[in-house]
Amino acid sequence: MGISNEMRLEFDSRSCNEGFARVSVAAFMTQLNPTLEEVADVKTALSEAVTNSIVHGYEGAIEKIVVECRIEDDTFCVDVTDHGIGIENIEQAMEPLFTTKPDSERSGMGFAFMEAFMDSIEVTSKPNEGTKVSMKKKIGCGKSKFER
Q: Where in the numbering of this chain does the Histidine kinase/HSP90-like ATPase domain appear (predicted)?
């Protein structure tokens, strides 16, 4: 397995940049000739990861978010990294409906959506150092994860 291409994107943790990240990642993954559904799956998962960094990682402060993408054979890999407050209990944070901000209309489904739309997700985090969400999706199956 070899890396055939990679890219890195860094932007301010502003909500308006979430769409920029989605479009940039979608454009990069086109070299794998994905289906529209595969693109939509990756864009949705990426959106959740970026939004988590903005809302939970930085809690409104404007800092940098880094999105790194790489293509490994027929697999699209994307990492979203922030250097924010981190997650104390990753297992609890990944439970559906768990949210640390129930008063701000957060549903607690971010990680559940990432898991649903990607083939794998790995979260590493340290309190006061930040969080990295690494996701992978095999491209070219022609079917979404829900149809396989």
A: 37-141
Q: Are 109 and 97 in contact (CB under 8 A)?
A: yes
Does 52 qualify as catalytic in the annotation? Answer: yes
pTM for the whole thing? Answer: 0.85
CATH value of 3-138 in 3.80.10.10, 3.30.565.10, 2.60.40.1840, 3.30.70.3340 = 3.30.565.10
Summarize pLDDT for 105-127 with one digit per residue, the tens.
555 566 788 899 999 999 999 99
Catalytic (active site) residue 115: no
The verdict on whether 106 is a catalytic residue reads yes
List 106, 122, 128, 129, catalytic entry: 106
